[in-house]
Amino acid sequence: MALTISVYHESFTLAEVFRISRGEKTAAEVIRVTVSDGHFTGQGESVPYGRYGESIESVTAELESVKGKLRYVEDHALLPDLLKAGSARNALDCAFWDLRAKISGKSVAELTELTLPEMCVTAQTISVDSVENMQASARKLAGAPVIKVKLDPEAVVEKIAAIHQVTPNSQLIVDANEGWSVDVLKAVADQLKACNVVLIEQPLPAAEDAALEGYECPIPLCADESCHTADNLETLRKRYQSVNIKLDKTGGLSEAIDLLQRARELGFTVMVGCMVGTSLAMAPAYLLCEGAEFVDLDGPLLIADDRPNGFSFSAGKMWQPSPFLWGVK
Known about the structure:
Layout: E1 4-20, E2 23-36, E3 41-46, H1 56-66, H2 79-82, H3 87-104, H4 108-112, E4 120-121, E5 124-126, H5 131-140, E6 146-150, H6 156-166, E7 171-175, H7 182-194, E8 197-201, E9 221-223, H8 233-236, E10 242-245, H9 247-250, H10 253-265, E11 269-272, H11 279-286, E12 294-295, H12 299-302, E13 312-314, E14 317-319
Parallel strand pairs: 5-6, 6-7, 7-8, 8-9, 9-10, 10-11, 11-12
Antiparallel strand pairs: 1-2, 2-3, 4-14, 13-14
Helix pairs in contact: 1-3, 5-6
């Protein structure tokens, strides 16, 4: 029987306003895709991202355009030829993996030969705000093993020092979301290292990160907006020591597996990251966590009400409960 592909726009209110250097949001606007063979149905989720020229409308149009070209489960292999790397391909790729698990009676972990973690430590995120508000947010997370801090160029050291003061044992990851200059980075790096910052994500705009070549930062630098697929890893080696793998950038789990393998071969450390989405978006990425030094899959914690049968979280740790919403037999 030919496949039926359905596309849905869904909105999830956030628990509180989420701010990064580029702006703020109060809801997670996601695309959910289902693929059915008439007996079994697989599902996947993605987050269209304006930074990459995506919108709910454009991603929906991409998905609608390929429906007639994907008639059978085996057509999963055609996705890289039909859709560019991005959130449209991500939702569809992950829906196909979920469907294949249900048809085969094997989990996606078994089908991909990936190790399903029993549990992993995930960073918990503090969004851009005043020094006082960011310290108050950090105080609520006191004891968390890893905290990710979104920062614009303003009061960088003051904010990190205030957070470190109330979470002295937490490792801190700073995410500038392309909002700094190389001069800002060089001015704050030593002081951030003294506050237990262990990683700085995407300090410069992707188009300007050639300025990082030759700079020996005291804190490892992680490529996020500069790293989508494995295609430009050789160039990134001159600028970064780590890469952030997000399925909405790679175009799904299939390409993410290739990116993880190639990044490890080239000596990068790896972060598995996410956009702000539900447990359905985190589930495929969770399979990559055994191969990563850092995990940032706290998207469901930012949402007021996650999907049913999603991840469980406690004290900075996450695990897949049973029953679970994706990728299982």
